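WARN retry 2 of 3 for item q-0093 after timeout on previous attempt; input resubmitted unchanged.
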Amino acid sequence: MTDEVEGFLKDFFEVNGFLVGRAVMDALPPKVGRLCPCLRVRNLRDSGRMGGSQDMHSFQRFSGDVARMTSAVVAVAGFELVLGGKTLNANDRKYVQAFMKSLSAKPGFVFPWEIDGAVGVASAKAEEHLLVIPMLPSAEPSRGDVIQALSRRGVTGVFTMRTILDHLIQRVEQIPAEQLSASLRILSLLRQMDLVKGSQLDLFGG
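OK item q-0093 returned
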């Protein structure tokens, strides 16, 4: 997980009233693969309205879904496929193929909930297993293929980076200046200079 992605991810959950902790990254034997970077989040405003993913209406999560969450392990994957390269569309065939290949590569990355006892995430069924990815295809059959592949790996829901950035851009002006993180100060500056306009997110694409 890059520092930038981790910063935005922590901001996203903290702005929504979550306690965010960085999970310990225990090294795995080379033949097993590498443990996917992850955070653990817990809703400090826990309303008890949602215990797990079974009450969610869709696999893809949006900002409105966050308030109903209780606790989750949040893993991050796929950013190495886009960072430093050309801008890709979520429905780009090469991107989808590369992402699907990364899911099945052996040895490849391992989600923390796939390892017994890893970073303390052999948790109750109520705890969500969420994944943050750069983007999710909107066109079929690519969208269905990616969702099925992730579901087979124990993922209960996905947040895209676009959703996270959009939510922070919408909320950043409501946060006192002294409480802004370095990442949020950048978004605030971009918003003040009219370089981003809420949900348009033309600057970021995808």
